């Protein structure tokens, strides 16, 4: 595949040129524009409240993540027993029965990705506030990964949805969702909103002097 | 330094770097010189492909909702589940917000995305003028992308099937295959979707 590259000399950003770009469609506007003429969305040179929103949603996501891990995700009732299963409990059980692949998927989606995301977003927000850095490329890569991967945490919520719809077998076995299902779903949504609120152009504004 | 006309410029959505728009060869791709984000791809029949895939996906979605999804048997008891009943599983008391969320993620938002895409670029493909609000509809398609989670739902279903093998026998219904096909088509369609191609096509169509 052929690749064509064209940049303005000296890599001018729209902001440095006194212009405002739309992040949704790439259209460039003269200073003072507030609404994109192409996609009609709101535009700003930089989203100045970006970091406040990022922190607010991030903290909400972390708070919702706590009950999601303490309370049961699944309530199972069979003829002989009743049991409650937390997120970690579910992973342990899958592992116990030898389903290593599936256990790993659930563990990564429900624990590794959310926790990794909290750390990554917090780290990016702090580095943006700190100012100049030489690591803009790595930070941008991190932002890309976080934005792409976050929604996959929702797997366990869908597992609970399918199990509770399917396993309604009268006295033999019934499965119902626990409180953790809702708090976990909320945690994922809040963290996604946090990542979406992040304006990646703030990362690049901090690019240090070339070859410093 | 004097700048070219603003409409000939394109700004990278990730790093704000300005680029001059060029005509690309077929199959060509333009990337941001600074951060490497893909700015434009040139595919001759991308619009027609996107619309036909979207139409196919809508039909599959309707099939996936209406046919049985999974059947379960255990000790003489039987239960048939559709995608809708998976959504409704949460519908008592505290479960309602969760039921709404699951319905949004796996049915409402994916369907809205598909219909908005068809509305935005369908008329262009058959040579008509774009409808009113075509730009807003396409912007909506783009913004809903992270929130439409059909493919994640299917991974969840596979995990659920593994968890259940011990207690019951599960039979896969026709809706299951419809949903799998839907997921594959959606992933493929999102890969070929080139948003600048669509914005440019809409610009041209409105000007005509
Ligand atoms: Zn725009
Ligand atoms: Zn860029």
What does this structure look like?
The complex is a heterodimer of chains A (212) and B (208). Chain A has 212 residues and is an alpha+beta fold. Chain A folds into two domains: 1-45; 47-205, Butyryl-CoA Dehydrogenase, subunit A, domain 3. Chain A is 53% helix and 11% strand. A four-stranded antiparallel β-sheet of chain A has the order 5-4-7-6. In chain A, strands 2-3 form a two-stranded antiparallel ribbon. In chain A, strand 6 and strand 7 (173-177) form a beta hairpin. Chain A is elongated. With 208 residues, chain B is an alpha+beta fold. Chain B folds into two domains: 1-43, no CATH class; 45-207. Chain B starts with 8 loop residues before the first strand and ends with a helix. The mean pLDDT of chain B is 86. The interface between A and B is large, with 77 and 79 residues. Strand 1 of chain A pairs parallel with strand 3 (29-31) of chain B. The structure holds zinc ion (2 copies). One zinc ion is lined by residues 12, 14-15, 17, 32, 34-35, 37 of chain B.
Outline the fold blueprint.
The complex is a heterodimer of chains A (212) and B (208).
Chain A: E1 3-4, E2 19-21, E3 28-30, H1 50-70, E4 74-78, E5 82-85, H2 87-96, H3 100-130, H4 136-149, H5 155-166, E6 168-169, E7 173-177, H6 179-197, H7 201-205
Antiparallel strand pairs in A: 2-3, 4-5, 4-7, 6-7
Chain B: E1 9-11, E2 18-20, E3 29-31, E4 38-41, H1 46-66, E5 70-74, E6 77-81, H2 83-88, H3 96-125, H4 134-144, H5 150-164, E7 169-172, H6 174-192, H7 195-207
Bound molecules: zinc ion (2 copies).
| Helix-strand topology string of chain A | EEEHEEHHHHEEHH
- How many distinct folded domains of chain B? 2
Residue-averaged pLDDT of chain B? 86
Structural class of chain A: alpha+beta
Number of helices of chain B: 7
**What does the main sheet of chain A amount to?**
4 strands, antiparallel
